[in-house]
Structures are given as structure tokens and as C-alpha cells.
Amino acid sequence: MAQALTDFSRLCVHTITTKPWPLEKAAKEFSAAGVSGITVWRDTLAGKNIAQARRMLQDLNLEVVSLCRGGFFPAREAAKKQAAIDDNLKAIDEAAALGAPHVVLVCGAVPGQPLTESRKQIQEGIAACLDHAAAAGVKLAIEPLHPMYADDRSAVNTLAQANDMAEALNSPWVGIAVDVYHLWWDPDLENQIKRCGQNGNLTAFHICDWNTPTTDLLNDRGLMGEGCINLKEIRGWVEATGFTGYNEVEIFSHKFWAQDQHQFLNKIKEAYLKHS
Amino acid sequence: MAQALTDFSRLCVHTITTKPWPLEKAAKEFSAAGVSGITVWRDTLAGKNIAQARRMLQDLNLEVVSLCRGGFFPAREAAKKQAAIDDNLKAIDEAAALGAPHVVLVCGAVPGQPLTESRKQIQEGIAACLDHAAAAGVKLAIEPLHPMYADDRSAVNTLAQANDMAEALNSPWVGIAVDVYHLWWDPDLENQIKRCGQNGNLTAFHICDWNTPTTDLLNDRGLMGEGCINLKEIRGWVEATGFTGYNEVEIFSHKFWAQDQHQFLNKIKEAYLKHS
């Protein structure tokens, strides 16, 4: 079991968590609340000067933890596969411009295409981006997604698969994002986290909770402590590998997005200390 | 890849699939449609004389494939655990009275209780029912459920786990129900089906499809061919073990339940031949 968190020095919040707030507003509020890190979703950068955004975040003393998200490599047509690679190269450029050390990859899947084929295409897609990632100094973090997203979001659905893929790619510019929402149920999770850390691939750690009942496959994530995830135990496994990075709060929730976002941010801070 | 299905001699339909129909109505319609097998859900037996129901099904030439469902063993309190065991003993008696060779187990989980503890309690619960199952000549079929049900429906979420548990219990009265909806995403599925068959544990095979998007975690299953599951390939793996049992159509769907059930049954027959 992990030691209790007593301050916000390792608290990072994803911009999607407070989706109603545009980037500037979120950054000011996070900073004023004592949040230390921010993971920027690409939609919040649309039409913006990224260098200016970077300065704004620096002035607010927010560390840019990562850029969300690249990926979606599999496709039936070659042109679409190339378009995905191009978009990932662009994401790498954006991350470099923003000062984000890694891009999170939601790897993708094509309904009806064999998962084995999608997995192959994902690995090939990542490989095709590695020279660019190395030149930019930006890591690509494979995020295994819950099996309920295997149809159209990710054919990588366990940490074992992500470990296999990262080890096969064998590059300092490939890592893994461990998200408790996707992985908590896996009987092999402790071992796979250990393996991920030992091989130097544990790049990011995302937290939230699993609601019972869950009313929406995408946008009904819980705040830490609301659900059934053994969060402190999993954080303990992550930290036992030597991981000292951020605990990133990533919550997609129609319920919370409809609420006052200041109050929600306060709830996040409280839940972070009490339940994470 | 499995050989095409050309008749309905191995088609079984679950009563829940045509939920609006009570047991007698479902049985008559299945029989008239040439369906060969029926899996009876316990709710349709409430208040009924089971011996009479058995004769009714025999007269209609429907083979009783299984009784759904027992399970839900884990609990925090000893009294609740005992109540679950008592209910499973009752399900075994009902199956014997109905002539069902096995009871499908939705094993259960308690939100917030460690999955390892729930798994232990499931195995203990099944073990406590085995003498009764043997005396009644009724098998208990562990059904691994999709990881999205790990919070409150089943702590057994992969076929590997079900295989481990069935092998540990090591009884001719324990088997496994393989349902494509729960297991299709698993990269280890082919191997685990092979293992399940080799160890004599492959007791039942349930089919349907996975919709994209899926709008409800429970009641938005697709008809075969509507979704992304590699159904013919999985049936091929199942049959390669020597399995010659029924292909059981088990579809929970608000959409289909709201439709004319005669038309739906025709759609099932068409999809069975074309896509299963």
C-alpha cells in the first residue's frame, strides 16, 4: 500500500477533467489551487500559438506533464494509415513546442478488423514515428485501454500487451501510460507493473475511479474514492518500481462537467489526499 | 474458421433473448421456428411447476440446454455467503427438475472488496455446492464475464482465470461457459479455449455480437453479424476442441426487446446461418 499523499507536489490534472474550462482558465485555476502539473489535451490548443501557451504555463508554475493524445494508427486503407502517422508527427511537434516530455497514445482499432492485424499496424505506426520522436526529444506513451474499448479505440487492452509492444519496439522514445481505469481488474496487474518499471517503460500514471453502476462507457468515470478501484494499492505497485512522476487525474464525466468546476477542483484535491 | 452452419440442429435460444415472451410462449415459438434447444432463465420459472414445464418443453421437442443462472457467491457477511450457497443449491434442484444438465454461474463480485478475495470466495462457494451438484447430476458452468463487470457481477474476467479455477476445483461437476461477448478481445483466447477443451471443461458456448458504439453496459448486445466479434473464428476454435454442443444465442437488448419478437426470432435464425 502506498504512503498517504500529503501535498500537491505530484498532482497533475488533465485539461479534459475540467472540460468546460478553456486552457487559459484551467491553467489559472489549477495554478491558484496549488496543482503542480498539467496534461494538455490537443483540442485546447486548437488555433493557439503553442509557444505562447508554453510561456503562459511556465509563468503559472505549471509543469507540462504530457500532451494528450496521439495514436489511432490502425486503418484498412494505406492513405488513412499514413494520415494517422502524419497526425502523430504533428502531435510530437506540438508536444515539443509545448515542452511536454511525452505524448499519450490511444492506439486505435478498426471495428471488424482482426485485433491481431490492428496490433501489428499499431506497432508499425509507432515505429514509423520514432525517428521524429527522437529528434524532438518526445516520448510516445502507449496507453493500454480497457477491453470495452477494443472495438474502435484500442486493440491494446492489457498492460502485458503494452509491455510486449514497448519491449519489441525497444526504444528510449517509447514508454507506457498506466491508467487505473483501464487496468484495475487485471489479475496480472502487479506483475506487469513491476515488469513495466524494470524495463524502464513506466512513463505515466493516470488516476480516477470506477463507478457502480457505470452509466456510460466513456463519460462516467468516478472521482477517486467514489468507486471500487484499489487505487492506493496500485499506486504502491507503481511507486515500488521507483516511479516518482505525477499522479494524473483524468476524469471524463458528464456529471462533473455539468457542475461548478471550482467546486469540482476542490473535490479533486480533497479526494486526491484522502483516496489516491 | 468454422464450417458454415446450414441448419438449426445446434441452435439454442436463451429465454432472456426474447424477454417479452413468457416461458410457454417462447417455447412454442422456438419450437415452431425449428429452434432445437432452449436455455431457461430462472425468472421465467417463478411460481411454476417445474415438472410440468419440463414436460411442456419435451412435448415441443426442445432440448433443455441449461438453466441460467446461479453464482453471485462473494459477500462481506457470512450470512450472505451462506444465502448465496443456498440459492445455488436451489438452482441445482431446479435444473435437475427441469432436466437441464448444467447451471451457468455469474460468479459475483462486491464493489470495493479486493478481487483476489472475491475470487477466493467464488471458488469456496462453488466447492460448497459440489456434493449437491454430483447428487443431482447437474454441472456448474463458470462463465468468465467481461472486465467491465468486474465491479459487481464477476471477479472472474478471463478464460484463463476460469480455467485456473475449474482445474483447481477438479470435479466432473464443474465446467465453463464460453461467451464471445465477454471474451472476444482477449489476445490469449485461442490458447485458453484449447486448454479449456483439453481439460474437459468446455461446457457451453454463447453467441451474440459487440455493437459499435455500445450504448449500455448491460443491454445493448448485438445480433450476430451486427458487430465486430470474430464469431466464426472463435466457433472454429471451440469446435477444434471437439465441442459438439449448442450455439446458444444470448442477447440482452433494449432495442430488440422493444421490437416484434416474431420478427426478431426470424432475424436470429437468418443471422445464425449467415454470421455465426
From TrEMBL, chains A, B:
Ranges where the Xylose isomerase-like TIM barrel domain occurs: 31-267
Classification via Pfam families: AP_endonuc_2
One GO MF term attached to the UniProt entry: isomerase activity
UniProt key word Protein biosynthesis: no
Keywords noted in UniProt: Isomerase
Gene3D superfamilies: Divalent-metal-dependent TIM barrel enzymes
Record InterPro entries: IolE/XylAMocC-like, Xyl_isomerase-like_sf, Xyl_isomerase-like_TIM-brl
Keyword Isomerase in record: yes
Protein name according to UniProt: Sugar phosphate isomerase/epimerase
Species for this entry: Adhaeribacter rhizoryzae
